[in-house]
Design goal:
The structure is a homohexamer of 136-residue chains. By secondary structure, chain A is an all-alpha fold. The first copy, chain A, folds into two domains: 61 residues, AhpD-like (Up-down Bundle); 61 residues, AhpD-like (Up-down Bundle), CATH 1.20.1290. Chain A is built from seven helices and no strands. In chain A, helix 5 runs antiparallel to helix 6. The first copy, chain A, is elongated, with a radius of gyration of 19 Å. Chains A, B, C, D, E, F: This is Carboxymuconolactone decarboxylase family protein. Chains A, B, C, D, E, F: InterPro entries: AhpD-like, AhpD_core, CMD-like. Chains A, B, C, D, E, F: It comes from Mesorhizobium marinum.
Chain lengths: 136, 136, 136, 136, 136, 136
């Protein structure tokens, strides 16, 4: 159970500031389904609006990275942060954007490898090589 | 300073099991430079060998994801794990594989966005939508 | 399910060192309810006693911060550590100490903001400004 | 050293989209000093602008929590995320907003206590009490 | 529910590369039971094989640390990483290797203590004493 | 630089509540050296006293685990929490308690292995096997 109320569609429809964001979520995604994250954020309409607009700007516009790559990066961060909900929702999003089993398997392998070497490096307290500090 | 000895080239050359891995690192990367991570792992030759061979298998073969995408996923995990060395070394690796400023900027934006929503989701303890549990 | 036994009231009553702490928890909180955390710690009576006495000293005395502020700080740490139980129990405690919906919403917004900028700062490896190092 | 360029004032002045944000930072804070975080974000003007505007909306408006409480929550999250820069910058911000030594000491005590019980709870995998799931 | 398919025994038996690893898991552990982790990794046979072989080399050979100590270290890392599954599986493994209640209680106390001082140290940004930097 | 004052010996000597703890640290460890962590905690004498007494109770008494094992568990937690100071100080403590190079190498290998499988398990969201839930 959540620590906040998850808004039903009826509650959303009665709150114009929330409804405006939900309408845009549905229109942008071309789907009636609005997942629980947004139903929790609905308790704070300005936070809901800012978060949705940032997410659109970061994840849903044409950019230098393709949308699937962005979803895989999102999964990587969410895994290291142990955010179960986020892993589920962004794995679903990545699959919706075309991630196949082979790509998913490689994503997992890279995440696991990074997890291992992050821990080894930190336990050894390896100093940064000067070669990595050029440029910046 | 590291919590382990960082092996010099002279020390490596005197230890055949370590030298064999360093030779392969240099040959594979077509560069004489071997960064400190491997000089720390040299204290445990079987761990050095296993880690290098896993890294080659995960990061340096043709696969379903292109090498730059894998490096960006590595940076994402390393950031959430707060591994300073890893962020430096894999940002250098990503740049060596062609990451331009626009791609780096988008990578950072996605990492920041994920950091934010990971925290919001966790603080609200949002339950996973059933729609995300189909398939698996 | 827990990895340790959760002590029932009957078990607690039969163990004087545990019962003494549970009696103090009940008296201090003016409530018969003792939550599962303490029922797990009961397996190690000295740890139970030390933890409860520290918690009282940190969270339940008059001090420089009001009790609600302390609970919100607790939620913030628990979120970044991804401790689901702790988020639930301290959100309940914060509500019991008067946290209203507007305060909860702001707490969430700050936690999310910090999550975002923590990740951005770490990914960019921003050096600490000298201005922040004055004093200490 | 950062993984991105930290913009000098001269570079900022030559880029109108960046300069507009820096001008607002200086005007809002009534100070000429702009810390390195923003000089790193300057590489991505839309991200710079979104992050600054979110930070203003979350941290610098009148709200349900006083500004010092918000800074202490920020420190709590940054500590659990091991973000050294963020701890330094927000401790400075908290002091600028009036945090005294006694308040800082209590903040540290709460953060430490939460760190301890977060780990104990997680290692014991304590199930959430039903009492904490009422409401939401 | 997992984000990947968990392979049944029938599916394993039909895939020789997977079956070879499962056969070795069963033979090494002298048990028919193969836990879900391996059934998830089965989707990527080379990753399955590498992970199992590393795990055997690290956890199941005679070495400088006894097997129970290694399992307790595993639990410690898994707790700080908030990996619920890993805590459950390695607590079971530690018990199977003889961990008694007193040892488990001490393990928890050390994990909790480390959690507390890690947070205190980080919030205070304590500089490393020169005495700790000798040697390496 | 720390975010708090690090107390000099002269300052400690002038504050009886702090001096009493420092005297006990020196007597217990049979060494004049008091590391920076305690010099930072000195700003809050009750926290200093509670932390030292807990540390003694957890790390420095005869118990079910030998002192070196406890130090290695401490390093494991500190690594996963990315606490650089803690890794340095507890690696020094482990070496003082007799940890040799082979034991240190195995500790690192286990920490790295756990880091890898923690990330793999979390990314795959593996459900806990029923076999691991028996007992508790």
């Amino acid at each position: 159970m959540a620590t906040v109320k998850l808004w039903t569609d009826a509650e959303v429809d009665a709150a114009p500031a929330v409804k405006a964001v939900f309408d845009d979520i549905r229109a942008t995604r071309k789907s009636d389904f609005v997942n629980n994250f947004w139903r929790g954020l609905a308790n704070d309409p300005p936070l809901l609006k800012r978060t949705w607009e940032s997410l659109k700007a970061v994840m849903m516009v044409d950019g230098a990275l393709d949308p699937l790559t962005r979803e895989m990066i999102y999964i990587a961060v969410s895994t290291a942060n142990s955010c179960s909900y986020c892993i589920h929702s962004h794995t679903a999003a990545a699959r919706a954007r075309g991630m196949n089993d082979a790509q998913h398997a490689e994503l997992l392998a890279v995440i696991g490898m990074a997890g291992q070497t992050n821990h080894l490096v930190t336990a050894m307290q390896i100093p940064v090589d000067e070669a990595f500090l050029v440029g910046g």
